[in-house]
Structure formats: structure tokens, C-alpha cells
């Protein structure tokens, strides 16, 4: 672990510190970074929420969360006690000017004025602007402050602009960190390494050799206890407009001159700006939306989305889009993006389908090679090649897989995506965070689709829970002679 470096002392102030995100993700992520030696002993984690409890009560909740979400083999009683010793708590309604801001100010004033402060907003996005206003009015914003914004940044362009404007009144853009946990995933970050550190990949990464690209994020779970929230969001807003468009950018971007944050983000922005608009005339042919009905997942019968919700709904739990990146590199190459709840299997992956070899040497034209980048689970890279079938004397081909699983040293699990991102905010490294113009470019592309769907220009399909999606989705690819990855296997 000689490469692990401790960050500077910091104060991490979490608004919404008693919520599910904090307990399930943020506190375990910070504990793991302490375990790895990256958090100094004089760092402080200051929880704030409207919940009226004292520090001991908060520490007890945090301890329960660590016992629940940290595996036994990496949960040390000594380290847990050290971590809990970093915790503070203030009962505070961040949206009210007359709330207990003096208590938070008092805790923060105990540290040097030049100490790094990270304000993490694990709250509803519509509250971000008000909290920033109160931080400013109570003189808690300094040149060493950063604010981390959880998604979603709005539900459309207008609300995203309002959120960004509200935060931007008090924090300059270089102090705003819009988090997208997908960019914290090691396999997503590995896309840049695979593309630009391997000449063999870089040489074939264009329309000249690539037939199509698929980006999939599917889950076997349904909306369950999140049905009321999910019904205001849907698959397009929840996954495609942010997470999967970011993955598309890494696949399609031109090589940046460096890994400096704005250089990388400029390259991603160029991809977003090159996305071909989906119009009223093309939305029905380029998109599919659907809701899951009752079915069987993992041997268990599960209800349909409308049954879980308990009311009619026009919200999609499945979305598939055929996108086009109008740059010379990607001319004529379709990018298929899809996401689903209650899918047949849990998988996040990128599938690069290469063009077939233009030869009749072996009789029928051999199928094109496929590169599969497994984001999760079983993180790794698989390259499918055509080889001679050794069971036959004739030159008959079959497919062989070169399959590499990417593992941590010692067989340890991959760090949770929040771990790196939380400390990157302390380091002041925004390379894996989203810049405002990226958010706006993504909304410009996604919003016409959402508007057309709300007007029922694209019929709502259905698919059985435990399946891969509606039949219409397969037709979306068949139109260009393509198939979804699972149909090629």
C-alpha cells in the first residue's frame, strides 16, 4: 500500500447525515479510507440533520451502520472506535436561517481558518440553493471550502439551471463538485486506460473497425420502497441522462492532452455536444420505453411496477435509446444505451462490436469480434475471437474468449465508488466530477425525449419481470442488423 497517501486534515460536513445515503454509503466509505491510512486522526466528520439527537445518539447510529455495511473481515473494533472518534453532530435545518447555525459555526471555528471544508449535500436537490445561502450568510464559505452535490441535478433543464444558479451564487464553479458515483467505479475509469494505454485498442477505436456500441445497466431489483420517488424520475432520468451518458463520453471521447480535470471534461463535453438531437420525427424510431409486469426473478414471484406503486403511471422502468455521435470518428456507428429494473440479471457492461472480417477464406464470413468491458459484477475485460474449431479437421471456426478478471491485490473487493470520490473532493481534484456545462449538455439531449414520452409519442411497452426487456427493444437493434449482447451468446 506504499502508493496510498494521507490527505490533508479536513472537516467533512454532511447535510442529511441521518439519511440512508449517509449511513449506507458515505460513512462506510470514509471508514474504509481511514482503514487504508488516508484520513488523518485530526480530521472531523460533522453530521447535520433535523433529527433531534445528541452526539452520543449519532455515534450509536453510525456504529450500527458500520456493523451492517462493513464486512466482518475489514471491520476492526479498534479502527471503528478511531473512526467514531472523528464524528460530531449538530441538529440543524439547513434551509432555515434561524436554525442552529451557531453550533455548527462553533465547531468549525475550532479548526484553523485555512482548513479544508467539504460540505456534502445528501439532501433533496431543491434544498441546495437555500443551504448555500445560509452557509454564506453565516460566513462559513471560504476559499478552502468545497460543496459536493448529489444527483439528480434537476429533473429537466429549467430545474437543473435553477439548482446550479442557486449554488453558483455562493460557490464558484471550481468549488462545486457534482458527484456521479459511476465515475468512481474502477472499471469505468479503466475505459481510459484500455483505450489510450494500449496501442492495439487505440488503433481500432473508430467507425472504420467498430460496427456498434452497447452500454447496459440492468438490475434484478424493482423499485420496492423507492416507488414514490422513482415515479417522479424514471429510467431515463435516473440512469441514462447522467450515469450512462458519462460512460458513453469515455467510450467516444477524443484523447485528452492530459488527465487534468478540465482537459478530460472538455473532451467529454465535446461528445455530449456532438450527440445527434432526437426530435419528434425520430423519437419513435430511436427510443423504447417500458414498464415491468409481474414475473419471476431468482425463482421468486414478484409484482409488477403498477402493483408496487398502487396507482396508474406513465413512468418507464426500462429505457433504450439509439444514440449517434456525429463526429468523424463515429460516423454511422450506433450507440445503444439501455437500463432496466427487474431484469433477468444484474449487469453493467460496455460491449464493443467490431466489424466482420471482409474475407471468404473460411466459407461464411466470420462474425465480428466483440470486446466486453464488465463494469459490475465480476469486473473485467473479455475479448471474443474467431479461432479454428479443434474438434474438426476442416477449417470451421468457433468463438474463443480471452477473459481477464480485474482483481485487487490479495483478492480484496473493489473499493466502493464513493471512497475515491469523497477524498477527491478533499484533494481538490474534480476530474471524476461533473462540470456544469456537462449537466446542461446532457439535459439538452435528453429533455426532448422525455417531453415526447410525456406526450405519449412513444407507446409504453411492457416486459415480464425477470426478462431482458420488451420485444420492441430487440427490434430497435434489428433495424440496423444488430442484436443485444445476450442474444449473440
Automatic annotation (TrEMBL):
<protein>
    <recommendedName>
        <fullName>Glucose-6-phosphate 1-dehydrogenase</fullName>
        <ecNumber>1.1.1.49</ecNumber>
    </recommendedName>
</protein>
<feature type="binding site">
    <location>
        <position position="181"/>
    </location>
    <ligand>
        <name>substrate</name>
    </ligand>
</feature>
<comment type="pathway">
    <text>Carbohydrate degradation; pentose phosphate pathway; D-ribulose 5-phosphate from D-glucose 6-phosphate (oxidative stage): step 1/3.</text>
</comment>
<dbReference type="GO" id="GO:0004345">
    <property type="term" value="F:glucose-6-phosphate dehydrogenase activity"/>
</dbReference>
<comment type="function">
    <text>Catalyzes the oxidation of glucose 6-phosphate to 6-phosphogluconolactone.</text>
</comment>
<feature type="active site" description="Proton acceptor">
    <location>
        <position position="243"/>
    </location>
</feature>
<dbReference type="Pfam" id="PF02781">
    <property type="entry name" value="G6PD_C"/>
</dbReference>
<feature type="binding site">
    <location>
        <position position="151"/>
    </location>
    <ligand>
        <name>NADP(+)</name>
    </ligand>
</feature>
<keyword id="KW-0313">Glucose metabolism</keyword>
<keyword id="KW-0560">Oxidoreductase</keyword>
<dbReference type="InterPro" id="IPR036291">
    <property type="entry name" value="NAD(P)-bd_dom_sf"/>
</dbReference>
<dbReference type="Pfam" id="PF00479">
    <property type="entry name" value="G6PD_N"/>
</dbReference>
<dbReference type="GO" id="GO:0009051">
    <property type="term" value="P:pentose-phosphate shunt, oxidative branch"/>
</dbReference>
<feature type="binding site">
    <location>
        <position position="346"/>
    </location>
    <ligand>
        <name>substrate</name>
    </ligand>
</feature>
<feature type="binding site">
    <location>
        <position position="50"/>
    </location>
    <ligand>
        <name>NADP(+)</name>
    </ligand>
</feature>
<dbReference type="InterPro" id="IPR019796">
    <property type="entry name" value="G6P_DH_AS"/>
</dbReference>
<dbReference type="GO" id="GO:0050661">
    <property type="term" value="F:NADP binding"/>
</dbReference>
<feature type="binding site">
    <location>
        <position position="238"/>
    </location>
    <ligand>
        <name>substrate</name>
    </ligand>
</feature>
<feature type="binding site">
    <location>
        <position position="219"/>
    </location>
    <ligand>
        <name>substrate</name>
    </ligand>
</feature>
<dbReference type="GO" id="GO:0006006">
    <property type="term" value="P:glucose metabolic process"/>
</dbReference>
<dbReference type="InterPro" id="IPR001282">
    <property type="entry name" value="G6P_DH"/>
</dbReference>
<comment type="similarity">
    <text>Belongs to the glucose-6-phosphate dehydrogenase family.</text>
</comment>
<dbReference type="InterPro" id="IPR022675">
    <property type="entry name" value="G6P_DH_C"/>
</dbReference>
<feature type="domain" description="Glucose-6-phosphate dehydrogenase C-terminal">
    <location>
        <begin position="192"/>
        <end position="485"/>
    </location>
</feature>
<dbReference type="InterPro" id="IPR022674">
    <property type="entry name" value="G6P_DH_NAD-bd"/>
</dbReference>
<dbReference type="GO" id="GO:0005829">
    <property type="term" value="C:cytosol"/>
</dbReference>
<keyword id="KW-0521">NADP</keyword>
<keyword id="KW-0119">Carbohydrate metabolism</keyword>
<feature type="binding site">
    <location>
        <position position="185"/>
    </location>
    <ligand>
        <name>substrate</name>
    </ligand>
</feature>
<feature type="binding site">
    <location>
        <position position="341"/>
    </location>
    <ligand>
        <name>substrate</name>
    </ligand>
</feature>
<feature type="domain" description="Glucose-6-phosphate dehydrogenase NAD-binding">
    <location>
        <begin position="13"/>
        <end position="190"/>
    </location>
</feature>
Amino acid at each position: 500500500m506504499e502508493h496510498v497517501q494521507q490527505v490533508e486534515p479536513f472537516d467533512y460536513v454532511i447535510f442529511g447525515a441521518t439519511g440512508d445515503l449517509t449511513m449506507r454509503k458515505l460513512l462506510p466509505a470514509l471508514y474504509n479510507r481511514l482503514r487504508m491510512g488516508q484520513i488523518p486522526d485530526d480530521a472531523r466528520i460533522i453530521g447535520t440533520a433535523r433529527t433531534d439527537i445528541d452526539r452520543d445518539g449519532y455515534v450509536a447510529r453510525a456504529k450500527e451502520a458500520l456493523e451492517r455495511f462493513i464486512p466482518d473481515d475489514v471491520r476492526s473494533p479498534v479502527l471503528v472506535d478511531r473512526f467514531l472518534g472523528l464524528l460530531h453532530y449538530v441538529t440543524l435545518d439547513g434551509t432555515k436561517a434561524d436554525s442552529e447555525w451557531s453550533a455548527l459555526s462553533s465547531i468549525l471555528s475550532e479548526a484553523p481558518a485555512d482548513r479544508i471544508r467539504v460540505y456534502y449535500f445528501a439532501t433533496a436537490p431543491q434544498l441546495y440553493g437555500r443551504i448555500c445561502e445560509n452557509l454564506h450568510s453565516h460566513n462559513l464559505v471560504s476559499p478552502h471550502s468545497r460543496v459536493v452535490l448529489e444527483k439528480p441535478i434537476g429533473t429537466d433543464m429549467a430545474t437543473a439551471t435553477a439548482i446550479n444558479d442557486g449554488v453558483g451564487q455562493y460557490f464558484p464553479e471550481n468549488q462545486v463538485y457534482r458527484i456521479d458515483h459511476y465515475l468512481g467505479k474502477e472499471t469505468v475509469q479503466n475505459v481510459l486506460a484500455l483505450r489510450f494505454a494500449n496501442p492495439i485498442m487505440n488503433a481500432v477505436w473508430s467507425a472504420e473497425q467498430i460496427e456498434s456500441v452497447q452500454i447496459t445497466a440492468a438490475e434484478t431489483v424493482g423499485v420496492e420502497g423507492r416507488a414514490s420517488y422513482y415515479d417522479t424520475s424514471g429510467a431515463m432520468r435516473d440512469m441514462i441522462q447522467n450515469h450512462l451518458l458519462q460512460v458513453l463520453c469515455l467510450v467516444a471521447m477524443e484523447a485528452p492532452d492530459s488527465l487534468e480535470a478540465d482537459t478530460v471534461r472538455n473532451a467529454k463535453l465535446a461528445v455530449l455536444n456532438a450527440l445527434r438531437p432526437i426530435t419528434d420525427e425520430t423519437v419513435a424510431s430511436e427510443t423504447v420505453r417500458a414498464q415491468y409486469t409481474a414475473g419471476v426473478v431468482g425463482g421468486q414471484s414478484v409484482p409488477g411496477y403498477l402493483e408496487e406503486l398502487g396507482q396508474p403511471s406513465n413512468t418507464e422502468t426500462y429505457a433504450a435509446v439509439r444514440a449517434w455521435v456525429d463526429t468523424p470518428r463515429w460516423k454511422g456507428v450506433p450507440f445503444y444505451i439501455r437500463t432496466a429494473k427487474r431484469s433477468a440479471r444484474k449487469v453493467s457492461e460496455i460491449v464493443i462490436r467490431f466489424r466482420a472480417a471482409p474475407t471468404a477464406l473460411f466459407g461464411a464470413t466470420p462474425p465480428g469480434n466483440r470486446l466486453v468491458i464488465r463494469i459490475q459484477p465480476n469486473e473485467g475485460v473479455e475479448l471474443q475471437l474467431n479461432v479454428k474449431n479443434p474438434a474438426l479437421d476442416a477449417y470451421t471456426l468457433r468463438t474463443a474468449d480471452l477473459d481477464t478478471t480485474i482483481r485487487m491485490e490479495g483478492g480484496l473487493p473493489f473499493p466502493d465508488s464513493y471512497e475515491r470520490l469523497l477524498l477527491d473532493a478533499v484533494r481538490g481534484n474534480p476530474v471524476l466530477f461533473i462540470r456544469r456545462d456537462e449537466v446542461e449538455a446532457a439535459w439538452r439531449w435528453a429533455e426532448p425525449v422525455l417531453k415526447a414520452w410525456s406526450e405519449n409519442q412513444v407507446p409504453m411497452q411492457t416486459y415480464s419481470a425477470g426478462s431482458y426487456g420488451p420485444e420492441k427493444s430487440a427490434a430497435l437493434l434489428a433495424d440496423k442488423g444488430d442484436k443485444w449482447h445476450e442474444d449473440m451468446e
